[in-house]
Design goal:
By secondary structure, this protein is mainly alpha-helical. The chain has helices spanning 2-25, 38-78, 85-91, 96-125, 135-149, 151-173, 188-207, 213-236, 254-268, 279-295, 301-307; strands spanning 238-242, 249-253. Helices cover 72% and strands 3% of the residues. Strands 1-2 form a two-stranded antiparallel ribbon. The longest helix has 41 residues, at 38-78.
């Protein structure tokens, strides 16, 4: 319960700081002076800067978490001089030293990614278009938001390290004299629960993978744009229609559109509204014509039955 309350407090603090950051950036537009349209491009530049910096800080945070995991695995494996089978499979070797070189190369690559992120952040900080807040305060708010949203990575690292230690401990014990299938000795109900849990894990990894912050923000902006368009269409009684295969749209009054449609139908006679359904009348005429042809022996009775 205490962890849940602390998590909620952290979320509220992160949301408040992000809200204050956005309000500080857009505060110039709330003055009573005549509106300056040049502020629109400035606002877009500021938003683009925030989104790009948020994406870089997210990449940096994920790389740091990944580096901690690899470094911890290396420290754990050095003392017993053993790697789990998964590491040997990835490195495509059974030699401990070659596996160690593979892990150290992975650590080196992650460090290079971190250096590249830091260079990009330093380069971007020189182009900061925001003057209302210091860059350190902006970074502090963004880093808090990234840390809160990516908290699950630390939990995942903890579980993976526990599994890593358990697999090394199992290898230290040596091979089992008798290997048996664990699922074969479990009750059927327990097997069904295990299969259901595995299915849930696969579905979660496949369909509930977290998207990047940049994609989340773009999706929210698109939803807001679509909602605003729908409100304006409903308010002003407008209509939108696709005019041709070039994906061009017609936007106009609903009344004018209906008048133009009626005028088109009356001028071209392209469509004609029927007062009644002529199907039964047409069917009677066809049956009468077939009977006449059969009476004149122009068609056989067998063909008449097949047509019927």
């Amino acid at each position: 319960m205490e962890q849940l309350c602390a998590s909620k407090c952290e979320q509220e603090i992160a949301e408040q700081e992000l809200y204050l950051l956005q309000q500080s950036i857009t505060s110039n537009n709330s003055s009573s002076e005549p509106f300056d349209y040049s502020t629109l491009s400035k606002k877009k530049d500021e938003q683009g800067f925030i989104y790009a910096r948020l994406d870089l800080l997210d990449q940096q945070y994920c790389a740091e978490i990944q580096l901690q995991l690899w470094q911890s695995c290396l420290d754990i494996a050095l003392q017993p001089h053993i790697w789990p089978e998964q590491v040997y499979a990835i490195a495509k070797t059974n030699n401990f030293n070659i596996g160690r070189e593979y892990v150290m190369n992975s650590i080196h690559n992650i460090k290079q990614q971190l250096i590249q992120c830091q260079l990009e952040l330093s380069k971007q900080s020189k182009l900061c278009p925001i003057t209302m807040l210091p860059l350190d305060q902006i970074d502090h708010s963004l880093e808090k938001m990234v840390g809160y949203e990516r908290k699950y990575l630390s939990i995942r690292n903890h579980h993976q390290l526990l599994q890593f230690k358990e697999k090394i401990y199992e290898k230290q014990l040596g091979p089992s004299c008798i290997r048996f299938t664990q699922s074969a000795i479990r009750p059927r109900k327990q097997q069904e629960i295990e299969i259901k849990n595995e299915h849930t894990d696969i579905s979660t990894k496949r369909y509930f993978t977290p998207v990047s912050y940049k994609d989340q923000i773009q999706a929210l902006q698109q939803i807001q744009t679509v909602t605003l368009i729908r409100q304006k269409i409903k308010k002003h009684n407008l209509i939108i229609r696709l005019t041709d295969k070039g994906n061009n749209f017609y936007i106009g009054s609903t009344v004018e559109f209906q008048q133009e449609a009626q005028k088109f139908f009356s001028d071209t006679s392209a469509f004609k509204e029927l007062s009644s359904n002529p199907f039964n009348e047409i069917l009677d005429k066809v049956v009468q014509l077939l009977n006449e042809l059969a009476s004149k022996k122009l068609i056989s009775n067998g063909n008449l039955k097949n047509d019927s």
